[in-house]
Specification:
The chain folds into two domains: 72 residues; 178 residues, 3-Layer(aba) Sandwich (Glutaredoxin). The two termini are 21 Å apart. With 278 residues, the chain is α+β, with helices and mostly antiparallel strands. It has a seven-stranded mixed β-sheet with strand order 2-1-5-4-3-8-9, with helices on both faces. A three-stranded antiparallel β-sheet has the order 6-7-10, with no helix packed on it. The protein is elongated and about 95 Å long. Helix 3 links the parallel strand 3 and strand 4.
């Protein structure tokens, strides 16, 4: 490579490297956006036993009514177009594969949508309990609840589950997490993701059944992936952080193309000059 071209190339690389703080800034912005709907593990925290809900049959249910045995707790809503269905069907498969009959532990799915109707919950309950085995014990053991936002938020805050409503899309942004509670309503552990391996599920339930709370190391050993459901407006298909990152990528690519084009033009011009002088 000709020596006189090296300074120009060096400047080009420096310009690209100079964009890295902007990339880092947009990455941090995206992380903060996702963190706003994340899960803060609160091992040992106590759920609000006085929180009141309504089940799929229209019956009032205090959370304290569900005590007496370990519980698997999820937060979902029936009109969720993506993650909730995957998580709930994953739960049904795991319960069926475990041979659950509704006796050793209970399952509670709480809607995060204040507009959830009893009919929606009833349809969802019928489908999922059938997938989970369909026995009378399974039907009685898996409760689908809705409630006032204050009670839902109190329960979600107690276990570290964060979500938010996006008015632009009419959807709720949230993550897929199954909270494992002891019989007296303390957080024993978490199962993240939409699939629940038999060993991890059994270990978590055995621990909760003995009244124990997972240590941080035990919780890490369970594994699982935090999956996020974020709505996208069809007319505005990317959140702010992604827009900024996309814009930064386009600008960097444009700079690179202009830079390479300039080098190519100078090379052609240099060759023409050399041909004329020979």
């Amino acid at each position: 490579m000709a020596p006189h071209r090296r300074p120009a190339i060096l400047l080009g690389f420096l310009a690209l490297l100079g964009a890295s703080p902007a990339v880092a800034q947009t990455t941090d912005l995206l992380k903060r956006e996702v963190a706003a709907i994340g899960v803060v593990e609160k091992l040992g925290a106590t759920v609000p036993r006085g929180a009141t809900f309504t089940d799929s049959g229209g019956n009032p249910v205090r959370f304290s009514d569900l005590s007496g045995k370990p519980l698997l707790l999820s937060f979902n809503y029936t009109s969720c177009p993506r993650l909730c269905g995957l998580q709930l069907h994953g739960m049904a498969r795991a319960l069926r594969d475990a041979g659950w009959d509704g006796a050793a532990f209970g399952v509670v799915s709480v809607s995060i949508d204040p507009e959830e109707t009893q009919e929606q919950l009833a349809r969802t309950r019928q489908q999922l309990t059938h997938e989970a085995g369909g026995s009378p014990g399974v039907e009685a053991g898996w409760r689908f609840l809705r409630g006032d936002k204050a009670d839902v938020d109190a329960l979600a805050d107690a276990v570290g589950f964060k979500y938010r409503f996006d008015p632009a899309t009419g959807e709720f942004a949230h993550q897929a997490t199954l909270v494992v509670l002891t019989a007296d309503g303390r957080v024993s552990g978490y199962l993240h993701g939409i699939t629940y391996p038999a060993t991890a599920l059994r270990t978590a339930l055995d621990r909760a059944g003995s009244g124990a709370v997972a240590t941080a190391e035990q919780q890490r050993s369970i594994g699982g992936f935090l999956l996020t459901c974020m709505g996208f407006d069809p007319a505005d298909p990317a959140p702010l952080a992604l827009k900024v990152m996309r814009t930064g990528g386009v600008l960097a690519m444009a700079f690179l193309l202009v830079f390479l084009g300039t080098l190519a033009y100078r090379d052609v011009k240099r060759r023409r000059t050399e041909n004329l002088t020979t």
